[in-house]
Amino acid sequence: MRYKLLTAAALSFALMSTGCSMMERLVYHPDINQGNYLTAKDVAKIKKGMTQQQVAYTLGTPMMTDPFGSQTWFYVFRQELGHDPVKQETLTLTFDRTGILTDIKNEKNLEAQQAMEANEIKASEAKTSETKAAE
User: Fold this and answer.
1) What is the phi/psi pair of residue 110, to 5°?
2) In angstroms, what CA-CA distances link 132 with 105, 112, 123, 125, 126?
3) pTM of the prediction?
4) Where, per UniProt, does this protein localize (predicted)?
5) How many CB atoms are located within 10 Å of the residue 33 CB?
């Protein structure tokens, strides 16, 4: 009798302690996108020598600016897709005192994103050609 009670207690403890970690993957987590989504085409339009107004017109207002007086703009994009790890891209633009762009620093190269967009375009073109051939 005592053996059955201990076995039942151990089994229920094991189920309760693993229940939360197992249920975490079953619970729906929405996709969360925050910040400035920049395509590779948008970033390619930015060149040194542009004014702050030209950059703001091309990319929109920055997510953050440097609070200590230097002319640095930060375009940050964070993406959390369900249970996947968070991905973050940061584009840092530095301007001189007159408001002219002097430095561009892209922490995540958007060439991978550009390749992915090109693959999506090829896939959609292939689907349209298949549907035309089927007709």
Assistant:
1) -85, 10
2) 44, 30, 14, 11, 10
3) 0.60
4) Cell outer membrane
5) 10
Residue type, 122: K
Domain coordinates in residue numbering, the chain = 28-129
Domain 28-129 belongs in CATH node 3.30.1450.10: yes
The model's confidence at residue 20, banded by pLDDT at 50, 70 and 90, is low
Query: What are the C-alpha distances in Å from 14 to residues 5, 10, 25, 26?
Result: 14, 6, 18, 19
| Amino acid at position 36, single letter | N
* Diameter of the chain measured on Cα atoms: 85
Cα distances (Å, whole numbers) of residue 126 to 13, 30, 118, 132? 54, 30, 12, 10
